[in-house]
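Pasting as-is:
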Amino acid sequence: MDTNVLYYVSSPDTAPVINSLYLTPTNKIVQYVGKKLRRIQTPEVFYVNINNEIIRIKRNQRKRVIANGNYLIVPHDTLMKSINGVWFTMKEKPLFSRNFKVEPFDLEQDFQFFDACDYVANDGQPTQNRKTGLTVSSVPFTKRSQGILDHTKFLVLTQQSFTVPDADIELFVEATMSYRSTGLTINGELAPGIRKYAAGIQNIKDEPRLSAGTLNLVDLDTGMVFDFVFSDSTIYALYEHLPVTDDTYVFTFAKAVASRPDDLTKPVVLRIGYNKFRNEVTWYIDGNPVYKVQKVGLPLVERDLYVLNGAVYPKREVKIESLAAGFGTFTLLDFFPFDESYEEIGQSFTIGLEKVRPLADLGEPYFQRMPDQLGNPVPQTEFVYEGPPEQDGQGAIITIGEFKVGLSKSPSKCYYLDRCYYPMSELKWKF
C-alpha cells in the first residue's frame, strides 16, 4: 500500500494500515501512526485510492468520495467528472435523456408498455412534433380492468431500471410536461357520462380520479411507486406500495402540492428524486421541492389526502435498489378523500366514485383492503365496475418535451417535515 496515497475509509469496519493516509467522514485527512490517527496538513494535490483506482484530487476538491465509473460522487455536495485527467464539478450526472422535440419516441429500445395479468396499458395514441414534443392522446379512454390495473390507461416505463447509488445523492426522473382532460364537461356542466359521479365530486377541475396525467418513478420489485398526478387545476404527489410482494396490505396516498395556471398547454418541469442513503423521496416542481416523504415504505398520517387501501400497514421501511421511470394517462376511480367514511350496503362497499365488493366474489388477480378511519379491519375487497365495460366518455392528453433520468445531490434543508436528517459528521465511524 502506497503511503503517499489517500485511502477512502469505505465502511465502519475498514481496518487502517500503519503510515497510510485516510480521509475521515468529517473530511479530515489523517495518518495512522503508532495505532493512533493524526491529522495532517492537506497537500495542494493528493491522490485517492477508490476501488483500487488512483485518482488525483486538488485540495479545494477535498470531499468524502465514492467511485462510480468515470465519476466521483460526493455524497453531500458535488458530482465530479474526469475530462482528460482534470476533475470538474457537475451539478448532475445524466443516465438517460430524450428530447422528444428532436428525438424519436422509441418503444423498442427506450420504453415499453406496462403490462400485468394480461392487461397492457396502451390506451393512447402517441404523436410527435418539433414544437411540443411527444403528445399522448387517450381520447376517449377505452380500456377497463378489475382492481388497481384499471388505473393505468397508457403507461410506458424505461426499458432499463437504474441502480440507486448508496451515496447521499438522488436518482431522479424529470420531465417537461403538460396535461388536460377531455369529456368531463360540456358548456361548463358535467358531461352525461360523468353525471353519475356528481355526488362524489366537489370541483371537477381538481379531480384526479376521472382523468389524470402522470410522471412515474417505479420499483416493481418492492412495489414502491412515486408519481406526479395532474388534474386540470391541481398537481398531486402520489406515494404508493403495490401488492407485488408478500406483504398482505398495500397503500396509496395522493397529496395536492401545487395549483396549475389557467393555460393547460403551458408545460411545467416535474422531478421526483429518491435518496437511498436517507431513504426518502422528494417531489420538485420547476426546480423547487414541494413535498418529501422520509422512511419510504411506511404509510402517511396526514389528513388532507386522497387514499386507497390499507386498514393495517406493513410497519417497515423499504430500501430500493433500482428504479424505472415513465409517464402515462390514468383514472383513479377507487380513490376517496381521507375523511370520507365508507358505508356498508349488504355485501358491497360504496367507496370513491365506484363500487367494490368482497374478493371472494372475484378471485384473482389483486387484493386490497379499504381504509377504516378507526383502524378496524374490514373485509378484503377489490375494486370492480358495476355495469358495462365501456368508459364514460372522458379522456386525457399529455405532452412531454424533455424526459431524463440522472443523479443529483439532495437538498440540504428540511422543507416539509419537523425533523432533519443527521449530517454525515454525526454518524459513528471507527477505524
